[in-house]
Sequence to fold (306 residues):
Amino acid sequence: MTLIVRPFVDGDAEGVADLLRAALPHLVATPELIRWQAGGAKAAERFAALVVEADGAPVGVARTGLLYESAEPGLGFVNLAVRPERRGRGVGSALLAAAEERLAGIGVTTAYATVADLPADRAFAERRAYRPGRHSRLLLRDLAATPLPPAPPPVPGVTVCGAADLPDPRPLYEADLDAARDEPADVVMDDIGYADWLAAYWHRPDLDRELTTVAVVDDAVVAFSVALTDGRYLYQSGMTGTRRAYRRRGLAQLVKHAGLTRARAAGFRQAVTINDAGNEAMLGLNAWLGYRPVAGHCRYARHLRL
Fold:
């Protein structure tokens, strides 16, 4: 098999979305999302995708860019996906070498990668000098088969609505920035301006503003649960967060339950969320909502030589 590593082109979108669904079957991946990412919507990220082509079709993809939301300079990411039937044939190695060269060329000194928590995947990363960091769990819930638990009681003074009902998305941006400051992570992502946030999150094609649920107090968003969907059957929780001054009042439970209720009513059949393995409070909330673990991921990092 001759491997050709080359930059992504628009005509790859269908094939890349298909291979991502094959390699990462529980996560949202659509041609529209791939095109949006590759189109430079988040200019500061300097995103670029590389593909490995075999027999005229993409069999592997590396998504690369800067972790521009962190105030720490020199941080980047490289995330690989290879079609399951093509693994073990040099596709991942060829992609990673090209991706690291690209990252070094844009000034990245530390590359982060999300790696499946499987022996072969972890061994692949560790043989290439990547070192493990935090673990996360991928949780799944069948929305169609089993009902949700009873809704938590309303919280006095709090209105729950869809993000589409907000007159202005800035209060959601402010809540997101506040919640992200102490989100469990290897890298703190808390340095993004409003214009960049709009481009990166509010205008992304898989964001469902009707199903993204917010808790509002006096026109301020104090808690939120972001909904990403494929527009058909898959509902993915992007992030659930609460402003620090409003925690321990049950608001995360309130907005996440409301979002899942709306998703179920809209006909979405499967819900997925990714949970940091050390976040016991959120793991407990997701278990109460009926999520069950189906896979794990580990964040790896490697220092690159410039």
The first strand starts at residue 4 and ends at 7.
